[in-house]
Design a protein that fits this description.
Layout lengths: L13 H22 L3 E10 L4 E12 L5 E2 L5 H7 L2 H21 L6 E6 L1 H5 L3 H12 L6 E6 H6 L1 H13 L3 E7 L6 H6 L4 E4 L1 H4 L6 H17 L2 E4 L5 H9 L4 E2 L10 H10 L6
Parallel strand pairs: 2-4, 4-5, 5-6, 6-7, 7-8, 8-9
Antiparallel strand pairs: 1-2, 1-9, 2-3
Helix pairs in contact: 3-5
The chain binds ligand C2E and calcium ion (CA) (3 copies).
The site of ligand C2E has 24 residues, from strand 2, helix 3, strand 4 and strand 6.
Organism: Desulfofustis glycolicus DSM 9705
Protein name: Diguanylate cyclase (GGDEF) domain-containing protein
Keywords: Coiled coil, Membrane, Transmembrane, Transmembrane helix
Length: 281
């Protein structure tokens, strides 16, 4: 074949046609699934390292297709963002999660927080604050137990917009976490100006701990920097006892990962919550 994959002959690449077609089919499926409310929240525990207590759950979107299969977010969020469907889907997941968390609060676990993910498209949406306010009203979920997670790169996209949006969220009593921290390019100056409650160390830095010297230096730098800025830190992707111990020794505040629990359907998450006993400290 003449013309490389990167050359301008790529316009005539027949595989591109197929990809476009696949995207269109998928978009139709997504649109129908959103209409049928096929998106729901799974829940993954977040543990407070110092006390060993369960501090809350992160809601992670899953698509339950009518053929019985479950589709993970990596397979539908990119297209959902491109088509704007993420606004509807994201709202369904947050509503689902707020309602569920209210049930757990009513069952006596009323200290548990809920973290939700907001993608850059959702974050840029001028209706975001009204949507969240309406969702809290509708579900009666207490704002101070809600944490909104935005990725570091979304936060750095348009820092003026980020600052005013985060300030409004903070004024509503909502907590703010910067997700995937360490993978973007945020400057210390912005971190200091943004009202941020929590930094989540990206799991790509945690996976090589404690053996890898670079990963260890990066994790320690993030933890000590956030201490200076008075921001809490969570480690995501904690899979081993050694990684947990590393975080404990370096006084990281929270941890999340397969070591404690995978994302679970609501029923399994409810079981998990009622069985959870303080971790060894
Ligand atoms: P994220 O917010 O960084 O979520 C963490 C991801 O790491 C989750 O993948 C989780 O299942 C996975 N994970 C958790 N613990 C471990 C571990 O110990 N080891 C490993 N290897 N992985 C772990 P998931 O559920 O597939 O979600 C992927 C991404 O999709 C999320 O990354 C988030 O950016 C996005 N996402 C998920 N739900 C939503 C949503 O409702 N709205 C939006 N806008 N984005 C969402
Ligand atoms: Ca997250
Ligand atoms: Ca993350
Ligand atoms: Ca991620």
């Amino acid at each position: 074949a003449k013309g490389g994959r990167n050359g301008h002959f790529a316009f005539f690449d027949p595989t591109m046609d197929t990809r476009l077609h696949k995207d269109m089919v998928m978009e139709n499926h997504l649109r129908r699934a959103a209409h049928l409310h096929e998106f729901q929240a799974y829940y993954q525990p977040l543990v407070e390292i110092d006390s060993g207590r369960l501090s809350g759950m992160e809601a992670l979107a899953r698509w339950h297709r009518d053929d019985g299969t479950t589709v993970p977010p990596d397979e539908f969020i990119p297209l959902a963002e491109k088509t704007g469907l993420i606004l509807t889907i994201g709202e369904q997941v947050i509503r689902d999660a707020c309602r569920q968390m209210c049930r757990w609060h009513a069952d006596g676990f009323d200290h548990l927080g809920l973290s939700v993910n907001i993608s850059s498209i959702q974050f840029q949406d001028p209706g975001l604050l009204d949507r969240i306010r309406a969702l809290l009203d509708e579900t009666t979920f207490p704002a101070h137990l809600l944490t909104v997670e935005i990725t570091e790169s979304a936060a750095m996209d348009n820092v003026g917009h980020t600052l005013s949006t985060l300030q409004s969220l903070r004024a509503m009593g909502i907590k703010i976490a910067i997700d995937d921290f360490g993978t973007g390019y945020s400057s210390l100056g912005y971190l200091k100006r943004f009202p941020v409650d929590l930094l989540k160390i990206d799991k790509s830095f945690v996976v090589d701990l404690p053996g890898d010297a670079d990963a260890s230096a990066i994790a320690q730098t993030i933890i000590s920097m956030s201490r200076t800025l008075n921001i809490q830190v969570a480690a995501e992707g904690v899979e081993t006892e050694e990684q947990y111990r590393f975080m404990k020794e370096h006084q990281c505040h929270k941890a999340q990962g397969f070591l404690f629990g995978r994302p679970m359907v609501a029923a399994a998450a409810g079981e998990f919550i009622s069985r959870f006993r303080q971790m060894r400290t």
